[in-house]
Design goal:
Keywords: Dioxygenase, Oxidoreductase
Structural class: alpha+beta
Family: Belongs to the aspartyl/asparaginyl beta-hydroxylase family.
Oligomer: single chain
Order of helices and strands: HHEEHHHEHHEEEHHEEEEEEEEH
Organism: Erinaceus europaeus (Western European hedgehog)
Number of strands: 14
Strand content: 15-25%
InterPro entries: Asp/Arg/Pro-Hydrxlase (IPR007803), Asp/Asn_beta-hydroxylase (IPR051821), IPNS-like_sf (IPR027443)
Protein name: Aspartate beta-hydroxylase domain-containing protein 2 isoform X1
Helix content: 25-40%
Number of helices: 10
CATH class of one domain: Mainly Beta
Amino acid sequence: MPGVGWASLHNQPQCPDGAPPGGQRPARPCLPGHRRHQKDRGRPSPSAPTPGAPRTADLPSPPSDLLLPPRPPAMWPERLAAWSWSLDGLRDGIGSGIQSVRDCDAAALGTVACLLLLFLWYCYHVGREQPRPHPPGMGIGLGIGLGAEAGGLQNGFAYCQSAECVRCGPQDGLNQKLYRGLQEYAKRYSWSGMGRIHKAIREQGRYLAGRASIQKPEVFFLPDLPTAPYFPRDAQKHDVEVLERNFQAILGEFESLYKAFSNCSLPQGWRMNSTASGEWVTFYLVNQGVCVPRNCRRCPRTYRVLGSLRTCIGNNVFGNACLSVLSPGTVVAEHYGPTNIRLRCHLGLKTPSGCELVVGGEPQCWAEGRCLLFDDSFLHTAFHEGSAEEGPRVIFMVDLWHPNVAAAERQALDFIFAPGR
């Protein structure tokens, strides 16, 4: 309506906001759609104006800053209701648990408490107990005590007496070092699956002193492993098949190396071993867990074959891989290997007649292109009684894990018996 100013709105119907008539502040007009417009408190509805009053449509539009945005729907009541429901569920769960404990027999609760205390005591005992000392002269840790045998001879076998040798190194305090190695491994990883290794380290003196003469590992004995002088090919089927498939490649690299023997007595890379008679030489690719880079470069295909084996011991001092050559007339004196956690695999490369391996009193003959698995912790010997015209006996030797040593135990043994520890 022309000529109607903002001040004239004092005479217009007001929203029912409780303002007293003739208040001190101008009341906002009742706009359609306002939330207060929807409430009925017994006053005349703005949609039905009083007679003689101007229509809302004729009024000027109020300033835009007086138009209030709609308020968001209230969320707190719903959140409070959900929280109350969660608290009710928690209270019901706690009450059910308390009631279950009350209903349980006191003897059963006592039994559970005793078992829990026993478990905690066992964990503390395992973590703190120290291994039992070995009898004097008994090989412990990574070394083997030579005792009173003159010249380092045991069972007629001459040891090298090297400080780095797994058998011949110094023995003072090495058993405690093994136990500390196990504790360090368990702290870094887990005690899970370490029961048999812990038992072995703790009882090495009794195991090594009380073993029957047919099997007596000189460094480390792991209890509860199946024992037999020879093992079937299926014990490590994959690795046996890999070695036999690569028989020709390994033989070819050996023949290239062996040509050097015509120029000198002991070519570079070869090692002479002590024997009762004859000559026994070896060419190591891996010696007591340490790769020999120069030799591996001279036998690249054989080295690649080693890398494809699944159970080859290559990370601890009990792992070896080498070409082994016995000249005619050689006899290797009876001796024991250092441990029962491995199987020694011989792949026959050249096997003249008159060659034989005896393990635990059982003789076996090598065959070219075939693998022979045996436990060298049994008393064993080898000899070549063939003629000089037949040439040397040659095998490729590699140490594989015993099939009954679990994966967790292998990892722990690699850590404890790591080269240089």
